[in-house]
Amino acid sequence: MAKVHNYSENLLSLEKKIMIYGYIRVSSDKQTVENQRFEINNFCKKEKLIINGWIEETIWNHSDRFTGPEE
Cα–Cα distance between 45 and 62 in angstroms, integer? Predict the structure, then answer.
């Protein structure tokens, strides 16, 4: 008896599984996490991409706000 191959099952096992993460980095008070997430989502919608997770990073450069001791 010949073995019947399920080609669609074989093709699915060969597909690459890709995870897409949105990366948000806020480094000034002029930027917001919400605005960046909105823009990334708009891009992904146009390109038919699905975000599987988010990475958010907030970096503040305190040296910009430090004026040093008064003389």
Answer: 36
Residue 11 has pLDDT above 60, yes or no: no
pTM to 2 decimals? 0.58
In this prediction, residue 51 carries a pLDDT of 93
- Two structure tokens written together for 24: 């948000």
C-alpha–C-alpha distance, residues 70 and 42, integer Å: 47
Instruction: Write the Ramachandran bin of 29: left for phi over 0, alpha for psi from -120 to 50, otherwise beta.
Output: alpha
* Residue 33 near residue 26, CB atoms below 8 Å: yes
For residue 55, the surrounding DSSP H or E stretch is strand 53-58
Find all residues with CB under 8 Å of 61, minimum gap 6, and list them: 27
